């Protein structure tokens, strides 16, 4: 039978991209609040434009954080330390417009045990209502060691490496903004080879394009594409895998660097940045469906965040348990209601059991009420900013709790009936 061939593309952006800067600032504010007040309610939005950062949203907390100081610290860490880059951490203006969360929302979400006098004794996490209605998707596949789609994994690692060579001075003259895009050729739904790599790297005006292209190919593209850690054990044992095929056909790989010929003006000087505008970069690079809700700037009572993490946790378990090669999980919620309205599993005909049987097993093993997700995944900790760039999923460098396969035995047992 003739093999089925197709192309699939995903993109990522560096931490210096204006939208990603906004995500990191929003999550840095969340981290600062949740470190002092774990039950703080945060919905923080950031806008960045030429010389100005605006932080707005709804925050209810018992603590105080210095938001302008946090903003400037993030901008400095990212690398906007020179006015020639068009944005500078010390001189850019910071505006703050924060109000309290609506009491109507709190009425449906909060769940506390109180004394007769009204004093709060403890929080009832089991009764915690969802912070909003909505639908969340999680996804996992056997394409990479971290059970993520290959295109988005490579795109993230290219951007991470681009930032690394900038910060370490391996390629001199780079600036913080940048993007990557990777196209993978698939045969019979399995990665066959890298088809196209696109890099956009902000740079100083004196850098020659051909020199930059050669250096990025040498120090960024090739080291990432041929990193053996990307291969699963199964792929590594095969005589032919996507890495060997890519090496063999390297001359056929299309490599593009700075396709306009010049990328000097970048960051907030070149484009306005907004929190939540890179939701496909944050998740699965378009390989799975998306419910539309952004992740950054939201405390874990918001199911846009906790539900999305839980859906990935479940999908990764389904694949990790050997119940499917690919799995997408959908969870739906109603505001103020703890129990999910629905839980759906789709294994794209790769499952060892019918999808409904796997979904039934999932519901036996995973408590997907928002409060219990918060408890099981320990989500009231200040670790959100570090996931705000280069993806919230996969990320073996961060050891994130929703990536840990802690319930494999239970899921396998439940699936066996």
Helix-strand blueprint:
Layout: E1 5-13, H1 18-36, E2 41-49, E3 52-60, H2 67-78, E4 93-99, H3 103-109, E5 112-114, E6 120-123, E7 134-141, H4 150-167, E8 174-187, E9 190-203, H5 209-225, H6 233-237, H7 242-248, E10 254-257, H8 267-270, E11 273-274, H9 279-282, H10 303-320, E12 326-333, E13 342-346, H11 355-365, H12 370-377, H13 408-416
Parallel strand pairs: 3-4, 9-10
Antiparallel strand pairs: 1-8, 2-3, 2-11, 5-6, 7-12, 8-9, 12-13
Helix pairs in contact: 1-2, 4-5, 10-12, 11-13
What does this structure look like?
By secondary structure, this protein is α+β, with helices and mostly antiparallel strands. The chain is built from 13 helices and 13 strands. The chain has helices at 18-36, 67-78, 103-109, 150-167, 209-225, 233-237, 242-248, 267-270, 279-282, 303-320, 355-365, 370-377, 408-416; strands at 5-13, 41-49, 52-60, 93-99, 112-114, 120-123, 134-141, 174-187, 190-203, 254-257, 273-274, 326-333, 342-346. Strands 1-8-9-10 form a 4-stranded mixed β-sheet. The model has no long low-confidence stretch (mean pLDDT 93).
């Amino acid at each position: 039978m003739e093999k089925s061939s197709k192309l699939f593309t995903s993109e990522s952006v560096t931490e210096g991209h204006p939208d990603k800067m906004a995500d990191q600032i929003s999550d840095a504010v969340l981290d600062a609040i949740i470190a002092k007040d774990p039950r703080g309610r945060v919905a923080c939005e950031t806008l960045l434009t030429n010389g100005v950062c605006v932080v707005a949203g709804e925050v209810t907390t018992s603590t105080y954080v210095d938001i302008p100081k946090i903003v400037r610290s993030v901008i400095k860490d990212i690398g906007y330390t020179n006015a020639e880059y068009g944005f500078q951490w010390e001189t850019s203006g910071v505006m703050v417009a924060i109000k309290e969360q609506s009491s109507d929302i709190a009425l449906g979400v909060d769940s506390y045990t109180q004394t007769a006098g009204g004093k709060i004794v403890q929080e009832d996490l089991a009764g915690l209502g969802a912070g909003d209605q909505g639908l969340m998707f999680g996804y996992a596949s056997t394409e990479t060691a971290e059970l993520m789609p290959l295109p988005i994994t490579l795109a993230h690692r290219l951007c991470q490496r681009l930032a690394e060579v900038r910060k370490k001075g391996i390629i001199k003259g780079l600036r913080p903004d940048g993007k990557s895009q990777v196209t993978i050729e698939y045969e019979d739904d399995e990665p066959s080879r890298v088809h196209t790599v696109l890099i956009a790297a902000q740079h100083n005006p004196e850098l020659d394009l051909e020199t930059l292209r050669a250096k990025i190919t040498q120090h960024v593209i090739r080291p990432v594409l041929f990193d053996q850690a990307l291969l699963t054990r199964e792929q590594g044992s095969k005589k032919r895998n996507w890495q060997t095929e890519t090496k063999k056909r390297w001359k056929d790989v299309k490599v593009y660097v700075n396709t306009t010929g010049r990328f000097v003006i970048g960051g907030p000087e070149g484009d306005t940045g907004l929190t939540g505008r890179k939701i496909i970069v944050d998740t699965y690079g378009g390989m799975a469906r998306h419910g539309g809700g952004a992740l950054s700037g939201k405390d874990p009572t918001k199911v846009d965040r906790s539900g999305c993490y839980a859906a990935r946790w479940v999908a990764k378990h389904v694949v990790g348990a050997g119940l499917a090669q690919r799995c997408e999980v959908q969870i739906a919620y109603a505001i103020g209601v703890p129990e999910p309205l629905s839980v759906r599993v789709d294994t794209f005909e790769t499952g060892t059991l019918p999808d409904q049987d796997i979904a039934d097993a999932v519901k036996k093993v995973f408590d997907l009420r928002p409060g219990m997700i918060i408890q099981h995944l320990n989500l009231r900790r200040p670790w959100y900013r570090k996931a705000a760039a280069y993806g919230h999923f996969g990320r073996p460098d961060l050891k994130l709790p929703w990536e840990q396969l802690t319930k494999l035995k239970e899921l396998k047992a439940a699936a066996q009936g």
